[in-house]
Amino acid sequence: MEWPSQSPDINLIEHLWEELERCVFGIRAQNADQKFSQLQTAWAQIPQSVLTNLPRRCQAVIDSRGFAD
């Protein structure tokens, strides 16, 4: 499959994971349960704007036919 070399990643979940990682970066957990709790708290704090901007990001990639601007 041919794919542009500078094609942006439009995998929606990747953008959410990036935001989640940003929220918990540098926060240590003593065990898996504590980390899970931290991740749940961070997930609930992801700004609604991140979620509402995802369709716009996808449309921008579609409009540019997969190439970077």
Characterise the protein shown here.
The protein is mostly helical and 69 residues long. It is built from 3 helices and no strands.
Can you give the helix content as a percent range? 55-70%
Oligomer: single chain
Structural class: mainly alpha
What is Rg?
16 Å
The tally of helices reads 3
Question: How many strand segments?
Answer: 0
Give the SSE string: HHH
Report how far apart the termini are: 22 Å
The overall average pLDDT, rounded, is: 80
Largest sheet: none
Could you say which overall geometry the principal axes of the C-alpha atoms support?
elongated
Q: Pick out the low-confidence regions.
A: none
Question: How much of the residues is beta strand, in percent?
Answer: under 5%
GO molecular function, one term: nucleic acid binding
Protein name: Tc1-like transposase DDE domain-containing protein
Task: Please describe the topology of this protein.
Elements: H1 12-24, H2 32-44, H3 48-63
Helix pairs in contact: 1-3
Summarize the structure.
The protein is mainly alpha-helical.
